[in-house]
Amino acid sequence: MAAALATLAVVAGCGLVGGGDDDVAAPPAATESASPVAEEPEFEPITESPTPEPVVTTTAPKPRKTTKTPKATEPTQPAFWSELPACAHYDKTKPVAKKTVKKALKSASARVYWRTEAPTLKLNYPLVKAIAWQESGWQTNIHNCDGGTGVMQVMPDTVDFVNNRFGLQYDAKNYKDNAYAGANYIAWFTRWAGQNYFKENYNLSTSKCKSHTSWCLLNVVISGYNAGQGAIEAAAETKTLPNPEYVAAVRSLMSRCECDQF
């Protein structure tokens, strides 16, 4: 919506090593002869030295590799649709299959929206799919309290702006138009933010961001989609995103999303 509103087990085992005493055979018992005979000289009995028990040798354990302490994860905002407010609702239309929605989002993200004024400006599917999942869970018949509609939760004013600005006739109730309207607005916001705050650099790569909530073009665009242009203008002086939890949620979904199964 361009509106408000996203296991390690260590097993240890131990073994017991046991040893047993060697059995020593007793010397045979003497028997008496029937007739007396001269005494035979006595000999010292020869006994075998006990076999020493084997000594188990072990290799000294290698030191464990130390691992760096993982950075604390940035807090994220639950997806609007996962905690649906009372005033939100579903319409009576049959929801479009998510595999079909995925095709529409891929198509919308692949389109070039600024061929002349900003030909280097290109959207990417991970960004578009993540915003759409955070906004609606790819549900085509969901409506928010503030008027956000469908897959991209586009607002009526946003659709009107895109249609008037680019001479289009998008209908937010149509899931394809909804995807294109949302992607078009992302492209427009990228152009606007790139011109005003990033020296006309329109690179939406994650490599340009120090973190999920730092002030970079990608994060600003995600933030603006949710909070609006005015909120970004107000935050520009301090370069602090007005909705870091929303941005962190979308950034996480870009790399790992339940929607990837469709």
From TrEMBL:
Annotated Low complexity bias: 25-38, 46-61
Region of interest called Disordered, as start-end residue ranges on this chain: 21-76
Domain Transglycosylase SLT: 114-237
Gene3D superfamilies in alphabetical order: 1.10.530.10
Domain of life: Bacteria
InterPro entries on file: Lysozyme-like_dom_sf, Transglycosylase_SLT_dom_1
Identification of the protein by name: Transglycosylase SLT domain-containing protein
Organism of derivation: Paractinoplanes abujensis
